[in-house]
TrEMBL record:
Its cofactor is heme. The keyword Lipid biosynthesis does not apply. It holds the Pfam family p450. Belongs to the cytochrome P450 family. The keyword Magnesium does not apply. This is Cytochrome P450. Transmembrane segments: none annotated. Keywords: Heme, Iron, Metal-binding. It comes from the Eukaryota.
Amino acid sequence: MQPRFQRTLANRRLGYHSGLRHSFENNHLPSHDDRLRTIASMVRNLSPEQHSMSFRTYIQSIAFTSVLIGFLGATLSELDPEDVAFVTSMLDQLCTRAPARPEQLQRVHSILRQWLHERYEDPLDYIMPAYETIWSVVASTVAMVYDQDDYKSAFLDFGENPTPRQFEAPRQGGRMPSAEAVVMEMLRMHPPNRQIYRETLLVSWPFTVSVVRIADINVAQRSRAWGDNSNVFDPSREGLTQGQQSEERPMLAFGHGRLKCLGARWAPIAVGVIVAKVLENL
C-alpha cells in the first residue's frame, strides 16, 4: 500500500485511465444517475438481518460495493457475495494497518482484477481512499441521524427520489436542512482524513531535500471561520453545500485545488443514497 500522502498519484492515474475526471467535472447525469440507482437497489436488497452480519460489516460491505460500482465501473451481477465479504474483511484489516499474509493479498488482487477486467494494475490504490472515506462517513451519519427525525426524514425523502435536485433541496421552506447539508456537516465535523500529507522536493544546488507538508484538516474545518459554534454539529450553518462554499470557509475533506479528489462532487451524494437506503432497512 502507498502512504496516504502518495495517493494523489493514484487519483491522477484514475482520471487519466478511466475518464472519470471528465465524467465527474462535467456532471454527466445519465451515467451518474444510473450508478446511483444501482447503488440504491443494491443497498435496498441487502439487510443485516438477512445476511447475519454486524452493523460494521454491513456498512463496510455496502461502501466497498458502492466504490466498485460508482467509481470503477464494476457490474453488480458479477460480484460474488462470499468474495465481497472476504475482500471487505481484508480492507478493514488494511485500514487498521494490520499485516496481511501474502496469499491473502494475492487472492484480493485476483478477485479485484476479475471484477474490474484487468483495467487497473493495482486496484487497491484506487479503492482504498474512496472506501475509507465512504464507509466511515456513512456509519457516522447513520448513527447521528437515526433518532433525529428531522434529519432522518430528509434522507428518507431523498431515498424515494434519489436525484441531485432532491439531495440539495432544503425542507419545510428552508427551515430544515437538506440531506446534502447533513452529509457535508458530517464531513466538516468528522473528516475521514484528519490530516493530509504531501511530499515535495526542495531543490537547492547541490542538494535536493524531500519535505513532507502536513495540512490539519480537522483544525481548519473547526476554525472560527465556521462561527462561534464550530464544534457543534449544525447542518443549518452557512457554507456547507456546493453552492455556498468559499475560500473563507473551505471544505477540505476531499483536498483542495488541483489536488482535489476526483470524487469530491460525486461521493457526498453517493453517501446520501447509501444512508437513505440503510435507514429504510433498519
